[in-house]
């Protein structure tokens, strides 16, 4: 049996290497967006946190990102096999030019949907509870 030494999970614990780190990063990007744009949402409130987790977790479930976990085992040094994977944070937060999916919405784009690639503002993601399940490769 091998045990992971303390304080190195970020380097050798596969879920830490790609999944949790990316998840935390994405969560922070969304809460930073709220502060930056002074949105009337209290991100420390439990119901807000729960809703954000629910919506973000759904984004992580997109088939687009399924190889991330497999690749995490390689990056952590456990397997030789490599997997092509889409960097979730890059996909969701790097190409924000353009406008929100909703016609006539002039709000600044928060993210790109990991499922259908639609651009969404905070309102149409969070308030409208955007729980996408339509996968467009
Ligand atoms: Zn979508
Ligand atoms: Zn919008």
Automatic annotation (TrEMBL):
<dbReference type="Pfam" id="PF04236">
    <property type="entry name" value="Transp_Tc5_C"/>
</dbReference>
<protein>
    <recommendedName>
        <fullName>Transposase Tc5 C-terminal domain-containing protein</fullName>
    </recommendedName>
</protein>
<feature type="domain" description="Transposase Tc5 C-terminal">
    <location>
        <begin position="73"/>
        <end position="132"/>
    </location>
</feature>
<dbReference type="InterPro" id="IPR007350">
    <property type="entry name" value="Transposase_Tc5_C"/>
</dbReference>
């Amino acid at each position: 049996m091998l045990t992971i030494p303390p304080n190195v999970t970020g380097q050798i614990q596969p879920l830490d290497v790609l999944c949790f780190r990316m998840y935390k990063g994405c969560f922070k990007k969304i809460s930073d967006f709220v502060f930056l744009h002074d949105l009337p949402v209290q991100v420390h409130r439990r119901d807000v946190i729960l809703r954000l987790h629910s919506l973000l977790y759904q984004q992580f479930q997109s088939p687009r990102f399924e190889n991330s976990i497999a690749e995490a085992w390689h990056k952590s040094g456990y397997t030789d096999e490599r997997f092509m994977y889409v960097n979730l944070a890059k996909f969701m937060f790097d190409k924000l030019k353009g406008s929100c999916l909703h016609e006539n919405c002039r709000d600044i784009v928060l993210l790109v949907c990991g499922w259908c690639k639609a651009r969404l503002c905070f309102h149409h993601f969070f308030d409208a509870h955007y729980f996408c399940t339509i996968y467009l490769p």
